[in-house]
Structures are given as structure tokens and as C-alpha cells.
Amino acid sequence: MRFLIINPFYSISETPSPPLGLAYIAAALEREGVEVKILDFVVFPYSRELLKSVLKKFEPRIVGTTAVTMTFDNAINVIKEIKSIDPSIATVMGGPHVTFCAKETMSLFPELDFIVLGEGEETIAELAGALDEGRDVSGIDGIVFRGKSGIVDNGPRKKRIDVDSLPLPARHHLPLGRYRALGMPVSMTTSRGCPFKCIFCVGRKMVGAKVRYRNPQNVVDEMEYLATLGFRQINVADDLFTSNENHCLKVCDEIIKRGLKIKWTSFARVDTVSAKVLTRMREAGCHTVSFGVESGNRDILKRIKKGITLEQVTDAVKMCNEAGVSPHASFILGLPGETPETLKETVEFGNRLKDMGVSHGFHLLAPFPGTEVREEKEKFDIRFLSDDWRDYHANRAIVETSSVTRKMLDDIVIEWENKFNGWLGYIRERIKSGEASEEEAWPLVNLERIVLVYDLMMVRVIEEMGRLECETAASSSEALGLFADRMAGSVKYSRDEILSVLNYEIGEGNLILTDNDGKCSLKWVDYL
Question: Can you give the CATH number for the domain in which 510 is found?
Fold first, then answer.
């Protein structure tokens, strides 16, 4: 039984990390004896030829993919291609988007055979076993499928997963080396669940209101393993790492007890942190905590059921600063009840937080399927401007209120983007003049390197031009110079820029240069 898992394409601007959810799915399948392969189109360029080649060589019985709303079109297009190549392959999709518009999706896309609802590990393993053995799937909870009389929705599974029963994510199937070469973090979780009811989020519906915690020793075992992989940081991707003080402290104490030297980040609510917790987190290696603040207007915070106050925000920031943890705040513009005055309040509150040492950013409301703001839009002062799922990336406005237009919302985000780009331009000028320190120059240098590496990956420059005769090269540096000369004409970067990146990635162990009897080759390190 072979199962191909596909990660659909989305842009590097979304700061991708190795797909943790798919690694959990792969591990659940492997535990049941299924042979698994993951094809990741975030860091490999998509082509029908590549897809056809993988299907021919691997011969999967099932192909599954995931989708958030903005990646749904890419995911369903891959499903269509698979069915056109081999109609006998069973196709399945999971993730938050299809969980909350399952019947609609199945009706529109006959190429999709199954949808897995909510948490997918147990469901997908049961479904794979049934298909392998030719058993009836009608009794499997957590799936939507095509029955004899039409589309059948079996509803969610009746019991939430015991998170300590799950095998560790099967990251050996992920091209971790490519993500590391791009400077992306690696993510993990210590719990699942969210007890809060924010109207713009589906987290509670996807993973349940009750928070389920992993054993702290198992958590730190995983951290210890991740520390060996060479990533710059670990992102603890729990909805609320700090929701339970006892759990949080036990994880931190275990890290400290083992003397584990790691850099990590986490998400938190401003009403779930304390000086004690933040101090311990810092001692354990946490350097940044991200808070969803959402709005600088008190009435909007109440309307969206955020359950926090502006005073709690400033108190949390002060505690972070005292503990030595960098606070980050995110805001959502275009929420129900938004007016020019509330927008001004939010921008001004963001500036106040900036003066307190907080980095912050703005997103725009995307009314995802499954959210209260979408399902009960009649009761909110809001108008949706697009049902094109590709627009649901939260970087440009797709909603308006009665007094706030799309342009007003976009203008704020664009101004913020321009300020960020202006800051990068300032660093660039200081680098040119020789005034910038290495620390000051790093954000721009790193960003430019990431973009160059990504371009090399996504146009297959290393694969297409990474082999040449190098008898005349007296050293590896000369060989790299020959490669840089060759590649400069195929991408928009200079020979020196390419050479600098090749040297850097080889030094970091993300790229391998070999010389066999005068035949030199370059190759990305895909699997760690």
C-alpha cells in the first residue's frame, strides 16, 4: 500500500516552514504499515512531468493533499492532474478549508474522492486501511465521500485524538534541507486545542475547545532532535503555548535541566502570560513571543470575541521587556464595525507599542470558511468582495464595512510595507557606504540571499546547470566560480551574487560540491 502526500504550492512571502501537519499524517500512515512519500511543491517547482514521473515510479494507491483557503486552487488543480494521469488513483484532501465546505467542494470537483474532516491522523489511517483491503468506508467517521446515492458526510470523529498517542512527525520524508537553505524555521507543537471563540478563526472548530497537552519530556525529546538539524530556530506553533502555566513551566524546566541550547519562539495571548512564565521561557531559549492583538479599539475587541483589553496588551509587553523576550504584535484590519476612527486607533496603538519595543504587522480580514464572521455575516457590518480563494492571503482587502473601503484598508498596509522597504533601503545605503555593522546589515543580506536561493530552486538552476567538466579548476573555489559564470546568464543575478550564495550554502551544509575525476557537480541537500 503506497500513499503519496502532496504539499501544494504557496509563495515564499508567506514564510513557509516544513509542513508539520503532513509529517504527522505520514507518521500515522507509516505506523499502519503504509509506504509513504511526500512531494512538496513549496520548495520544488511544480510540473505535470514531475508529477507524472513520481506517480509512475512510486505507484501510489492513494494521493492526498492539504489546503488552507489560499492554497485550495493549487491543491485541487493537482488532484485534477492526478486523475487525468491515472483515474484509478484514489484522491483525498484535508485541512481547514475543505473541512468547512466539504459538500460544496465535492459537488464542484468530481476528481476528489474523499475529504477528511478536522484532525486527520486517525481518520486517514483508517481510510487507507479500508481502501487497501477493499472494505466499505461508509462506517468511517470523519470523512465525506461519494456514496451510491450521492455525497455522504459522516460527520466529525466522535473523540478527539490523545496527542501523546501520536507518533513523532515523520520529518524524514520532508525536504528539510531546502527549508534550511532558505533560512526558514522548523515548527513543532506541544499541545492542541483552543478554548477561545474569536469570530475570524477556525482553530477551535478544527482541533477542539479543550487543550490537550503532550508530555513535557516527549516535547523536549523532539526539541532535542530538532536541535541537531541545524535550523536557526524552532517555532512552537501551538495556538496557545502559554495557556497552561504548569505545562509551560514543565517544558521550560526540562529544556533547562538538559542544558539544551536552542532558540525558539511561541504564540501567546496577552492574558495568559506572567513575569514568571516569560522569565522561564527566556531562560529556556525563547527569544520572541507573538501576540494576536487584532485591534486598538475596545468595542471591536468585544465584537470579535477576543476577550482581551488594551491594558492587558501593554502589561504583557512590559513583562516581555523585563524578561528579555521580544514581543511581536499582529493586527487585523477590516473587522466588523471598522470605521476610519477605529482604523486610526489601531494604527496609533501599533505606534505606541512600537515605542515600547514591539515589532508589529498588519493583516487584512479574510473571512475563511468555517469562521463565524463568514457563516453569520448577516449580523455583521461587513461586505465580502471576493470568493476567489486565491485572494484569501490576508495581504490585500477583500472586505469592506459601511464606512471603510477596500482602498482605505489597503492604503494602511501598503504604507506599512513601504516603511519596511524604506528601512531595507536605508540599510542598503549604509552597506554601500561601509557604515553598516554586520549585525545591522544581516536582515537585508539574509533576505536577499533567501530570495536568490528560492529563485535558484524554483527554476531548477542547480539541477539543470550543476554539472560540468572541471579539469582546469585547481580548487573548489575555482570550480564554484565556473558554476557562477555559467548560471549568471539564466537568472537575474550577477556572477558575484550567485558565487556568494553558493559559498554560503556549501558552508552551511545545504549544498554539496563534488569532484569525481574532473567532473564537478552541485546538489541541494534535500533530506537531513
Answer: 1.10.10
